[in-house]
Amino acid sequence: MTPYDLTNADRAKILVEALPYIRKYTNKVVVVKYGGNAMTSGGLKADVMGDVVLLTLVGVKVVLVHGGGPEITEMLGRTGKKSEFVDGLRVTDRETVDIVQMVLAGKVNKDLVNLLETKGGRAIGLSGIDGRMISARMKDPRLGYVGEITRVNPAPVWDMLDRGYIPVISTVGCDEEGNSYNINADTAAAMIAGAIKAEAFFTLTDIRGILRDRDDPGSLIRTVRADETESLIESGVISGGMIPKIRSCTDAINAGVKRVFVIDGRIPHAILIEMLTDEGIGTMFTKGE
Q1: Which residues contact 143 (CB under 8 A, 6 or more apart)?
Q2: Is 86 helix (H, G, I), strand (E, B) or coil?
């Protein structure tokens, strides 16, 4: 069925179903971690930005946190630098961190701000350096200027939200000596969500959610308690690159975020489907008992 097959009664039913969820999230803050295919596909990017603007128009306060790994890799390639990874983290020497800052806080961030504005939103681009939002230290000397977050200052985020803007945050941090650091976007988004005690945190991925059997899309686990995460890792249900992503979800819950959702960013309008429908499409993390 296409949107053109819907009757007026179908459209009205969809709006009525969304109403209690709109009421639940109105004047509440949600954090969206934006990455994966949803960030590299032009059509999906436009859908996500349109969804963010729609949510703000119905009274939801959205904070958008983004990465930009593919764009960094492309720019490094242009300068003749080869990307090297250790345990899934990009080795970041002094020259590389300058490129990371240029790409994330510059091109990627401003492109997203511009797209939100063309969709009718009011957006302000920030990096973790602005207002010392993300303080960090060197995570591991082997990785160079890859940062471990030591503190999140939520004041710049609140300032923008209070003025009616959508904060668009690139995950570059700094220390007291003025060094810049490349920060994992999943970790930064989770810690920002915790610092502002967000109502919900949505992380867009390239999978449906957590699958009991990774080869069976029908084995989606719809709800996970935060205290179940480690057992799912030990059993192999959560593995590889999903481990740090899912641990960041648990960290957000433990920091005071009420609900965390892992959703498939390859699905058009995934955020709206998860937020505003009865069924949803991904895996929800809760504090549980």
Answers
A1: 86, 89, 90, 91, 92
A2: strand
200-205/61-66 β-pairing = unpaired
Residue 134's DSSP bridge partners are: 152
CB 94 within 8 A of CB 145: yes
DSSP structural state of residue 267: S
The candidate with the shortest Cα–Cα distance to 128, out of 177, 93, 180, is 180
Query: In angstroms, rounded to a whole number, what is the distance separating the alpha carbons of residues 90 and 76?
Result: 12
Q: Pick 28-286's CATH classification: 1.10.357.20, 3.40.1160.10, 3.40.190.10, 3.30.300.30.
A: 3.40.1160.10
Residue 287: which residues within 8 A CB-CB, separation 6 or more? 225, 226, 253, 254, 258
Contact 248, 215 (CB under 8 A): no
Q: Is the pLDDT of residue 176 over 60?
A: yes
Q: How far apart are CA 94 and CA 121, in angstroms?
A: 36
The β-bridge partners of 86 are: 89
- SS3 state of residue 219: helix
DSSP bridge partners of 210: 221
Distance CA 212, CA 231 (A): 12
Domain segments of the chain: what residues? 28-286
- Comparing 183 with 88, the larger pLDDT belongs to 183
Q: What's the pLDDT tens digit per position in 8-21?
A: 777 787 788 888 88
**Average confidence score pLDDT of the chain:** 89
What does residue 244 show for φ and ψ, rounded to 5 degrees?
Answer: -65, -35
pLDDT for 1 equals 46
Residues in Cβ contact with 191 at an 8 Å cutoff, skipping those fewer than 6 apart = 134, 149, 152, 251, 252, 255
Please state whether the predicted TM-score (pTM) of the whole model is above 0.85. yes
